[in-house]
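Hi there,

I know you've been waiting on this one. I reran it after we fixed the sequence typo, so this is the corrected version. Both the input and the resulting structure follow.
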Amino acid sequence: MKNLYIIVLVLAILGLLFFMKDGKKVEAPTNLDGVDTPNTVAPLKEETPVGDNKPVVATKEFTVTGENFSFSPSVITVKKGDKVKITFKNSEGFHDFVIDEFGAATKQTKAPATEVLEFTADKVGSFEYYCSVGTHRAMGMKGTLKVE
């Protein structure tokens, strides 16, 4: 009889431990057959960039070829606020490329040579670009940058 009490006591303790452990158990979802279940996760917030909220401006790129006493193209048109990148290709003679109003200028180079200049078109109007070598500007080596 003493053995029976020990067995019952051991089973009672094991049963108690089993139920205590089972009470803290978290059940995994059982609905895995593709049926929609309510979403309990909050949607992610769209982050706002820190700093200025100005849109990113693409760079407007142009290639200008300089020959003796002319530029090609002779007119470049951009919008106010555009970033402008001009690749100046000197294909003949000794020249440079200058736009005073934007402080943009290449070095004076002997052909064949390539120079790159970049600036932001922050003023509206028509601006002359020219070659500053000798009398090249007076001889017609100039063009127009139109900023709208």
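Quick highlight: The two ends are 106 Å apart (CA to CA).

Best,
R. S.
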